[in-house]
Amino acid sequence: MVMPGGPxxxxxxxxxxxxxxxxxxxxxxxxxxxxxxxxLTALDTGGDGGRGTVLLVPGFTGSKEDFxxxxxxxxxxxxxxxxxxxxxxxxxxxxxDPARYSVAELGEDLVAVARQLRAEGAGALHLLGHSxxxxxxxxxxxxxxxxxxxxxxxxxxxxxxxxxxxxxxEHLAPLLDAGGVPLVHETLEQLAMTDxxxxxxxxxxxxxxxxxxxxxxxxxxxxxxDAMTTEPDRVAELAATGVPVxxxxxxxxxxxxxxxxxxxxxxxxxxxxxxxxxxxxxxxENPARTVEVLVDFWASxxxxxxxxxxxxxxx
Length: 315
Fold this sequence. Notes:
Layout: E1 29-35, E2 38-44, E3 53-57, H1 68-76, E4 80-84, H2 103-119, E5 125-130, H3 132-143, E6 150-154, H4 163-169, H5 172-192, H6 196-199, H7 203-215, H8 218-228, H9 235-241, E7 245-250, H10 258-268, E8 271-275, H11 282-285, H12 287-300, H13 306-313
Parallel strand pairs: 3-4, 3-5, 5-6, 6-7, 7-8
Antiparallel strand pairs: 1-2, 2-4
Helix pairs in contact: 1-12, 2-3, 5-8
């Protein structure tokens, strides 16, 4: 969601309107994976992925296109890249029951996708979750640590979302009751247009964002919002898995604060990277630096021998 005001107004950022690049050119093909509640639509760059496979998971109201600027560069760096719509998001259908969008169930979807990728010879499998997708990705790692070579939490936090974004979510259910997804979209658009930055977003990008939001299921909005605002702190559990973790975020993140994410990194014993020129969506706002950080982290993970063991460990 676009939030007017906030820390980004005071931070030394240089984000141009065309840095909202969900429409970035790429060579990935559409495909589907089997999820626990139906097919999950993805963008898949294919290839042999000599340096491993990357599974990218978007946040609340997001989609696979939030990673579009990363697809070609990560592929060029030797990775096969798969960016996913979670159930109920954009091109992935989902159930009508909001309870089916718990962090645990969504995490099970990722484990199912990981198994399919392993069966296709994924090799090292690096999982990245953005924002709410980070909470879901953490659940997947906790459920099946052997499935993943590493985990990146991008603009995500240790527990439930708080602050202004959480306060906004409190109004979601009444809006859905009154007018469904179209009324939620109209209200958020009116709110976003109070921000001069949002007013400068190119028309093609705004058209895509509107089409994507209107394709989102009402049940997923309810269920994910509830999950995101009730998630407990599971940092100690994640640390105990031994899976290497990268915590990365924009310098002016306005969801989980930079201080909260830095503290999470310390508690995990994880690598911590701050992405300049970015707020809550570094993959869109500063894709070049985001790619550098990710490729360097994945290269540092001792994957030799792990992928074969992990493939055998998957049930």
